[in-house]
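can u do me a favor
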């Protein structure tokens, strides 16, 4: 990683200070990580969420396409995937970037059916287990953090393989506690919708119930991607990574976990037309119900009523984000780099 460090300037009057004060000058340490990008503030409300002097720090680079960041509290490290590289990396302040799981996804004989064979979205469950959207193995899986052994949680619907599961979120409370919402676009398959390996007739949003049963939430979307839940678990958000319709959908959920209504929550068409890099992709929700959602330009910070407060910009597309450390650090997976920015808010615990 190429690190840009702040150079120390000449200290005026150093000799006089030494004589007068009898003290030696100690140079201040340069910052450990280079600063990149900027935070574009569209509302004064953002100052209560991200401090005006907050900096975006680049932690790692050299990734083909970084995705699926998740903070592992027991151990104090970040996991993230290089999806086309088929490797899951580990980052910590002590060790930097290292390999955690390689291959992370598909581990069979050589094949040409995959466009992206690694894992994608990831979460640590309420039970403390690593759960992944296993794009390359076309399912959801649980990964033992100690042994790295995988257990398949879901791989088919109506007897047919999923396309390439992309992202997931867990229900936190109520009778569906532990259920998983996940998306299944064709991004992992060579040829996308035209892939001969594609078995599902649609690109779905699904609910995996605690008993393992899988139900369809929406089968009408072109490229469903990131998912998030409101703090009360009554609203599901789904990002659509379609350049022809770059929107975030909102679904009001019934007691059975399925939608009672749906609507476009945020339309990013104007942001895309303005030239912002990226599309609606991964997202996280903070404790107050605000969305930190990938979109054209970077991470869009949206209130629960869809007011855009600002954009975290790294200079390139940001695929996903995750809260970590003490809950107030937002980690960003942005193209070939991983970065972070401190916030005044906390992600959902």
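np, heres the sequence
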């Amino acid at each position: 990683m190429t690190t840009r460090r702040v150079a120390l300037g000449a200290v005026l009057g150093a000799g006089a200070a030494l004589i007068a004060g009898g003290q030696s000058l100690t140079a201040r340490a340069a910052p450990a990580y280079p600063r990149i990008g900027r935070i574009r503030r569209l509302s004064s409300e953002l100052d209560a969420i991200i401090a005006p002097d907050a900096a975006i720090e680049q932690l790692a680079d050299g990734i083909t396409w970084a995705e699926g960041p998740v903070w592992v509290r027991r151990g104090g490290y970040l996991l993230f995937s290089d999806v086309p590289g088929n490797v899951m990396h580990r980052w910590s302040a002590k060790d930097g970037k290292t390999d955690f799981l390689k291959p992370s996804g598909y581990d069979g004989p050589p094949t040409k059916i995959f466009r992206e064979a690694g894992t994608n979205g990831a979460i640590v469950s309420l039970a403390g287990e690593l759960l992944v959207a296993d794009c390359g193995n076309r399912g959801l899986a649980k990964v033992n953090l100690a042994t790295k052994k995988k257990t398949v949680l879901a791989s088919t619907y109506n007897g047919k393989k999923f396309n390439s599961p992309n992202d997931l979120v867990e229900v936190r409370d109520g009778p569906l506690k532990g259920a998983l919402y996940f998306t299944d676009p064709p991004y992992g398959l060579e040829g996308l919708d035209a892939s001969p390996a594609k078995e599902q007739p649609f690109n779905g949003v699904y609910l995996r119930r605690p008993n393992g049963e899988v139900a369809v939430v929406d089968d009408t979307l072109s490229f469903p991607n990131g998912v998030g839940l409101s703090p009360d678990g009554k609203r599901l958000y789904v990002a659509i990574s379609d350049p022809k319709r770059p929107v975030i959908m909102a679904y009001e959920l019934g007691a059975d976990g399925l939608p009672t209504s749906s609507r476009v929550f945020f339309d990013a068409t104007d942001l895309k037309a303005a030239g912002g890099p990226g599309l609606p992709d991964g997202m996280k929700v903070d404790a107050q119900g605000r969305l930190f959602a990938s979109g054209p330009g970077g991470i869009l910070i949206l209130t629960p009523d869809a007011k855009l407060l600002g954009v975290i910009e790294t200079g390139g597309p940001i695929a996903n984000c995750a809260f970590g450390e003490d809950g107030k650090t937002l980690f960003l997976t942005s193209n070939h780099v991983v970065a972070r920015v401190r916030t005044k808010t906390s992600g959902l615990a």
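Confidence is low (pLDDT under 50) at residues 1-28. hope that helps!!
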